[in-house]
């Protein structure tokens, strides 16, 4: 594994290695024995999209692994003035040891990785959010055991980056994924075909949640979709995690949200607060999972 650009690029073995190392690094946090595979390295964070959890977890993670970090927004570098991503990649590849990119187009991350000659991590694009889903899988396995044969139910906009990465993970790891969304917000047939596995897409919320081990929400208004807010609030109304929906899931089903949460929209305040421990464990696990990813990449590039 030389980069982390997509769940699709990972083998089942590589996913297992990430999850196993995540457990070790989480247990070792704060101890003198904590490994520092990035010692002497400087990593760049290029963020075209704003962030709380992604920026903080990567900055803290790089430092805890012994590295130094520089944060670069579009306003800080020539990318924001039209410099091609491949030229930025050629420059940074000569100066830093790794790069984490949060941007709009998946192609930009792919092109950077192909050109820079340094480990590159997709910290979110419009197409995928692989670090989030790996952390989510780790959280599920912490609380419920192996994800194989579990049922994960996603409620809301099924055509955005989070369910896309969930679909690619389901095709590899043998769990059942159900996506409940209005027809307009359902994933493309091409992505369903690429993902493979047992994925059920429906507009029936109760059917999707029936017997689910995990019920999962994301915001209805992803970054870059703000102009569609009024339309989305109308069209996604009802695709909400609430007490009525959870009656169909398993009695001790996990409720998860990748945050930020807009209470009263995709999830009710009462449900959010009852399941806050799981949701914020999920958020914390971004740190541990991303540290594992960076440690494995650093090891691969040393060979």
Question: What is the topology, as strand order, of the major beta sheet?
Answer: 7-6-5-8-9
Question: What is the global morphology?
Answer: globular
Distance between the termini: 11 Å
Mean pLDDT: 95
Largest sheet: 5 strands, parallel
Number of domains: 2
The beta-strand count equals 9
Provide the CATH topology of the largest domain. Rossmann fold
Strand content: 5-15%
Q: What string gives the helices and strands in order?
A: HEHEHEHEHEHEHEHEHHEHH
CATH architecture assignment name of the largest domain: 3-Layer(aba) Sandwich
Low-confidence stretches: none
Any idea what the radius of gyration is?
19 Å
How many H/I helices? 12
CATH superfamily of the largest domain: Aspartate/ornithine carbamoyltransferase
* CATH top-level class of the largest domain: Alpha Beta
Structural class by sheet pairing and helices: alpha/beta
Can you offer a commentary on this structure?
The structure is a single chain. The chain is α/β, with parallel strands linked by helices. The protein has 2 domains: 7-129 and 286-302, 3-Layer(aba) Sandwich (Rossmann fold); 131-282, Rossmann fold (3-Layer(aba) Sandwich), CATH 3.40.50.1370. Helices cover 44% and strands 15% of the residues. The protein contains 12 helices and 9 strands. It has helices at residues 12-28, 53-64, 85-92, 106-116, 130-144, 161-173, 189-195, 205-209, 229-235, 243-246, 269-274, 276-302, and strands at residues 42-47, 68-73, 98-102, 120-124, 151-155, 176-180, 199-202, 214-217, 254-257. A 5-stranded parallel sheet has the order 7-6-5-8-9. Strand 5, helix 6 (161-173) and strand 6 form a beta-alpha-beta unit. The mean pLDDT is 95.
């Amino acid at each position: 594994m030389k980069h982390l650009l997509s769940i699709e690029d990972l083998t089942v073995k590589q996913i297992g290695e990430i999850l196993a190392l995540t457990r070790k690094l989480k247990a070792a946090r704060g101890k003198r024995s904590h490994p520092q595979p990035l010692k002497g390295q400087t990593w760049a964070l290029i963020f075209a999209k704003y962030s709380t959890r992604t920026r903080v977890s990567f900055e803290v993670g790089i430092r805890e692994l012994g590295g130094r970090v520089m944060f670069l927004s579009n306003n800080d570098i020539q990318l924001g003035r039209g410099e091609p991503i491949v030229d930025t990649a050629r420059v940074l590849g000569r100066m830093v040891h790794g790069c984490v990119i949060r941007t709009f187009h998946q192609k930009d991350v792919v092109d950077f990785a192909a050109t820079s000659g340094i480990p590159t991590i997709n910290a979110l694009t419009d197409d995928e959010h692989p670090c989030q889903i790996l952390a989510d899988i780790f959280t599920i396995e912490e609380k419920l055991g192996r994800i194989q044969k579990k049922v994960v139910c996603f409620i809301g906009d099924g055509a955005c980056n989070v369910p896309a990465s969930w679909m690619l993970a389901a095709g590899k790891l043998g769990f059942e994924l159900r996506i409940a969304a209005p027809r307009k917000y359902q994933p493309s047939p091409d992505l369903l075909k690429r993902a493979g596995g047992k994925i059920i897409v429906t507009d029936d919320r109760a059917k999707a949640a029936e017997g689910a081990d995990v019920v999962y929400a994301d915001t209805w208004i992803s970054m870059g979709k703000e102009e569609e807010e009024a339309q989305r609030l109308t069209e996604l109304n009802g695709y909400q995690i609430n007490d009525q929906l959870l009656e169909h899931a398993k009695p001790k089903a996990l409720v998860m949200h990748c945050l930020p949460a807009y209470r009263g929209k995709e999830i009710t305040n009462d449900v959010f607060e009852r399941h806050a421990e799981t949701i914020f464990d999920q958020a914390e696990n971004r740190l541990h999972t991303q540290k594992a990813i960076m440690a494995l990449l650093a090891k691969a590039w040393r060979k």
